[in-house]
């Protein structure tokens, strides 16, 4: 368990220690969820902010040599020459 101290400002703001931000991968835009249990202990959880609906998914290769693109309907677009 790691322990660090910070001071509450006159506006009731606190600074998260840099070592905690690095260890917990806290980035700007993330939120903190505060909770007090029955014994009066404060618990803080990091709530990651997602920037897109599919950010958690890995890209899926579409096959082929990598030169083609695919639209949403699955049609393949290939490069062609006007000389052909």
Main attributes of the structure:
two-stranded antiparallel ribbon, DNA binding, two-stranded antiparallel sheet, single chain, mainly beta, SpoVT-AbrB_dom
Relative strand content: 15-25%
Stretches where pLDDT is under 50 for at least 5 consecutive residues are none
Task: Give the N-to-C terminal Cα separation.
Answer: 69 Å
Number of helical elements: 1
Largest sheet descriptor: 2 strands, antiparallel
By DSSP, the count of extended strands is 4
Instruction: Round the mean pLDDT to the nearest integer and report it.
Output: 78
How do the helices and strands follow one another from N- to C-terminus? HEEEE
Q: What structural class do helix, strand and pairing data support?
A: mainly beta
The strands making up the biggest β-sheet line up spatially as 1-2
Shape: elongated
Helix content: under 10%
Oligomer: single chain
> C-alpha Rg, in Å?
24 Å
Quick overview of this protein structure:
This protein is mainly β and 84 residues long. 8% of the residues lie in helices and 19% in strands.
Provide an overview of this structure.
By secondary structure, this protein is mainly beta. The protein is 8% helix and 19% strand. The chain has 1 helix and 4 strands; from the N terminus they run αββββ. The chain has one helix at residues 18-24; strands spanning 31-36, 42-47, 69-70, 76-77. A two-stranded antiparallel sheet has the order 1-2. A two-stranded antiparallel ribbon has the order 3-4. β1 and β2 (42-47) form a beta hairpin. The chain is elongated and about 55 Å long. The termini are far apart.
